[in-house]
Amino acid sequence: MVLKYGIVFSVLLFVITSCSRSGQFPQKISEKTAINSITFDYSFLPAGYTFHNDSVIKSDFGNELEELFQEKKKFDDKNSTFNLTNLENTWKNLQNQRNNFNFENVKQWIEITGFLLELSGNSAYASELEEIIYKSASIFSEHEYKEIEKKVKPWIFTKDLDNVYVNLFVNETLKYDHSLNGAVEIIQETNYPESGKIKLTFKMEEKRYIELFIRIPEWAESATVTETGVKYVANPGTYSQILRKWGEGDSVEINFPMEKRPKQ
Predict the structure, then answer these.
(1) How confident is the model at residue 56 (pLDDT cuts 50, 70, 90)?
(2) How many other β-carbons are positioned within 10 Å of the β-carbon of residue 169?
(3) Closest CA to 210 of 232, 184, 230, 236
């Protein structure tokens, strides 16, 4: 009888634990980087790019965006009614209208898109941030574009402890302290989108284990990711993963076939 009750208790405990885990509040896959931890030397755009002199008048989608921010607030407040699926579906419905957003709407859209990238780890949100960057250059004035560029900046790299995600491609250096101590620098060098060549170089005093995730755009078929002569899986629409100890001077070379990149 004691054995029987023990088995029943064990089953109940397993069920309760499973339900508890499945009902856990969602955790972010990675988080945006603090402004003081990144060095952003160059614009996303080539030198000499010509901007519009005046802002293009667009529609105000503030009320529609407010629905997204209300759902985000539930997450920030740890409200158990937060529903990621509802948030993503609402985002998708509004995405079709993004080209009609006014300047303030675009900044709001970047924030909510970056939040979804952090929460889901879905590369589609990083792709959307890239789309915003290059579309905005042909819509807004230079001053407005610089504001948009600054708004996107924290999501170029995102990280979770020593998991580092490379979401956007531009000359930038990420600096942070490794969880096991020691300063880490990851330097990204590229003239993307003029070419698809990107290089990541590590600077650190001691070897440290870091999980590196590099976004492969949906259009980048036949992309290559190479480290010390080893080629890594680079499936379009996903992140190529390199999990290893890194040391001073280690580097990764990425090459995207730019002839397949859609025109902006």
Answers:
(1) low
(2) 22
(3) 184
Closest alpha carbon to 128 in 96, 104, 163, 160: 96
- pTM, two decimals, is 0.88
For position 6, what pLDDT does the model report?
A: 40
pLDDT in tens, 4-23: 444 333 434 433 333 433 34
Which residues make beta-bridge pairs with 253? 199, 226
CA atoms of 128 and 133, how far apart (whole Å): 9
Rounded Cα gap, residues 36 and 53, in angstroms: 31
CATH architecture for the domain at 157-260: Sandwich (2.60)
Among 255, 75, 246, 72, CA closest to 164: 246
- CA distance linking residue 82 with residue 163, whole number of Å: 26
Burial (CB count <10 Å: 0-12, 13-18, 19+), residue 243: exposed
| Contact yes or no for 88/121 (Cβ under 8 A) | no
- pLDDT of 44 > 60? The answer is yes
Give the residue ranges of DSSP H helices in 23-155.
62-76, 84-95, 103-120, 123-136, 142-152
DSSP annotation string for 213-228: EEEE-TT-TT-EEEET
CA atoms within 13 A on the CB side of 167: 32
Does pLDDT of 55 surpass 60? no
pLDDT digits (tens, 9 = 90+) for 58-100: 899 999 999 999 999 999 999 999 999 999 999 999 999 999 9
**Residue-range domain boundaries for the chain:** 53-155, 157-260
Distance between CA atoms of 239 and 236, rounded to whole angstroms? 8
Task: For tokens 């976004």, name the residue.
Answer: 215
